[in-house]
# Entry
Amino acid sequence: DTGVSQDPRHKITKRGQNVTFRCDPISEHNRLYWYRQTLGQGPEFLTYFQNEAQLEKSRLLSDRFSAERPKGSFSTLEIQRTEQGDSAMYLCASRATGGLNEKLFFGSGTQLSVL
Amino acid sequence: TQLLEQSPQFLSIQEGENLTVYCNSSSVFSSLQWYRQEPGEGPVLLVTVVTGGEVKKLKRLTFQFGDARKDSSLHITAAQPGDTGLYLCAGFDSGAGSYQLTFGKGTKLSVIP
# Structure
């Protein structure tokens, strides 16, 4: 178990630029989540993949956000035309096939700062 | 989306004291999970409670799931500085056809040596 890996750990960008984050889940996990967390808040759900299929997306998610998991392994989250309000920690998590009680393994996150 | 309310939001105590944090909802959850998060890291699962009334112990931590599966509590005995962190409760609602794990805002605990 090498854990969930996220890259980069930190990203500073100017408003209006596009950014892309990568998540490598635990190898045998076919379910992958993206969350966003701001200071003083709990993680907020963004989207969920089962294998390569994006099965759920938050209704609060702007059209500027898009996520992919092309081969059912790693995933990318892209934010287009970034805004200062996008500044947050972006967390990826994975879990193995199983019941809803199964544990989520989180990565260390990508901290995004939009100037 | 179901909401989970955690209280207190902040808690600062001396080493050796006991404390309880709460997680409440108006909705029923099929299970609740408790996570601990340290600054700059992702949350790490502590425990999952499934059955109403269930009590689980993890060393000095005791977790309880309410009989109606709408609330949960975390009690820490003889807190230590290593317990410092953000404690998050989270729940799955299998009945809503959603896959998302909903988190509360967390309780930020500081244990002062």
Notes: Chain A has no helices and eleven strands. Chain A touches chain B through 27 residues (CB under 8 Å). The mean pLDDT of chain A is 92. The first strand of chain A starts at residue 5 and ends at 7.
